[in-house]
Amino acid sequence: MSKTTSDVITLSTDSDSLPVVLTREEKEERSQQAAAQAKMASEHRTAEAGYKQQAADSKEAATSATREVERLLGVVRSGKEYRSVPVEVIYDPVADSIVRRRIDTLEVLSERKPDPADREKINMRRQKSLVFNLDDARDQKAKAKQAKPDKSAAEAPAEVTGTIQ
Question: Is residue 96 part of a domain?
C-alpha cells in the first residue's frame, strides 16, 4: 500500500462495527443503561409470572366449569340426580329377611337373609321391646288404678257433721 494519501483513490465508504475503547463517562452511562434494562427485565418477568398464574387459574376454572356443565347435562338427560336420602334397614319376620328401603317412598333397595350378626341384633331388639312393653303395661295399669275411685269409699255413707235439732 502506498504511504501517501495522494496515491489513494476512494472507491466507496461504509462503516463496520469495530471495537472502540470507552471513556470513563461512556462506561458510567453504559452501566446506568444496563441497570435500567435489568430492572425492566425483572419487572417483565414478574408480570409474566403473574400472567402465567392467572392463565393457569383461568384454565383450571374453565375446566371445572366444563365438568359441571357435563354433569348437569347428564342430570337433565337422565332426569335423575343423586342426593342424600334417608334409608332404613328393617327385619321382616314374615319373609325372614333384612330389607333396606327408602324412608320417603318405601322403595325396597335390597333384600337378603339375616346373618348371625343380624339375628343377634334382632334378638336384642326383641328383648328390649318386651321390657318396654312390660313397663308400658305396668304404667297403664297404675294410671287406670289412679283414675278409678276406690269403690269402698264410694259405697261408704257420707260423714254427716252438724247438730240435729
Answer: yes
Amino acid at 83: R
- Bridge partners of 92, per DSSP, are 97
As a whole number of angstroms, the distance between CA 84 and CA 72 comes to 17
Which residues 6+ apart lie within 8 Å of 100 measured at CB? 87, 88, 89, 108, 109, 110, 111
CA angle 125, 127, 129 (to 5 degrees): 65
Q: What type of residue is 39?
A: K
* Residue 91 near residue 111 (C-beta atoms within 8 A): no
Whether residue 50 is contained in a domain is answered as: yes
Q: Domain span at residue 40?
A: 29-77
Q: What is the pTM of this model?
A: 0.43
Give 87's strand partners: 102
Render pLDDT for 135-152 as a digit per residue (tens, 0 to 9). Answer: 666 777 777 777 665 555
